[in-house]
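Researcher: Sequence recovery benchmark, item below. Answer with residues only.
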């Protein structure tokens, strides 16, 4: 838990293509996009490394704000009607690289199932 590359993006120490920002949530374009639209939605606090660190009592408001951000971004990007996929990689088997909770938002193309 704590400092990651995303902490530097939050503090604007390294650049990112920001698409949404509030007091508690930041969203920016993934540097290695896997779809025409690939946005990462993150909390600005850096004490939630993974889904398994979420505490419903403490984090429910923040999680609601993250999903509100998803819906705002979907409308702004024009992918709310056609649909999009949300992915949260949690831990090694899922391929999580950055230990700061993030929702991947993928859109702008048809997705396949099952995921790899
Ligand atoms: P994970 O594999 O942890 O679920 O996803 C981490 C994501 O962060 C990857 O899709 C990766 O491309 C993205 N990423 C890693 N470093 C940076 C960065 O410095 N800037 C941006 N915009 N995305 C990053």
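Model:
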């Amino acid at each position: 838990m704590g400092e990651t590359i995303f902490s530097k993006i939050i503090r604007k120490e390294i650049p990112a293509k920001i698409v949404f920002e509030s007091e508690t949530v930041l969203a920016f374009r993934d540097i290695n996009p896997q779809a025409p639209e690939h946005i990462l939605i993150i909390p600005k606090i850096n004490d939630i490394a993974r889904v398994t660190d979420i505490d419903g009592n403490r984090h429910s408001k923040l999680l609601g704000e993250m999903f509100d951000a998803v819906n705002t971004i979907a409308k702004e990007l024009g992918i709310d009607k056609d649909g999009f996929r949300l992915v949260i990689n949690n831990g090694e088997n899922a391929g999580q690289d950055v230990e700061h909770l993030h929702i991947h938002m993928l859109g702008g193309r048809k997705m396949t199932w099952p995921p790899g």
